[in-house]
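Blinded run. Sample ID left blank on purpose so nobody reads anything into the name before looking at the predicted structure. Input follows.
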Amino acid sequence: FFFFLKKLSQNTATQTESKKVCTLADVHSCMEYLSLAGDTLAYKIFKGTEDMGALAFLSGDTVYFAKDTYPNIAEVLKSFVGDKNICKVSSDIKEDMVFLDKHGVEMDDNYFDISVGAYIINPLKNSYDVSDIAMDFLSLGIKEDKEIFGSGKNLKTILDIDETELLSYLG
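Blinded prediction complete.
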């Protein structure tokens, strides 16, 4: 997922190798790795329970992942999402902006939402799911969120996903 986001944002040739995935104890452990992300931060905020979620992001060739409380996730992201020198890349960034705003964090205007980008290129499609975008633009097959998280009454949160499956999804 994150390798795809980074490559799409850089508009470079795709490699299909998996990335290393590093699970951190909590989001405060992410700070030093976030600062190594450079001028582009490919990230995803995962919703979990009412007060717990997760943050994953790409730095170099490694995906970092940490589960924590929402206030801690917002606090860690604060200095990065407000930095105009860092382009934030993800999907459904509007949802992230609402989440961050609830926690007193404002995102600047230097971001790229891949779903909006795909819509601008082809507004006639029915779906702008990340897996569809990866296939359409990079011929890269990644699992749909439905395959990982389920849907309807069988919907799981990031906190419910088996670690092996989660690491495969993130890499």
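Unblinding after everyone has recorded impressions. Residues 70-81 form the longest helix (12 residues).
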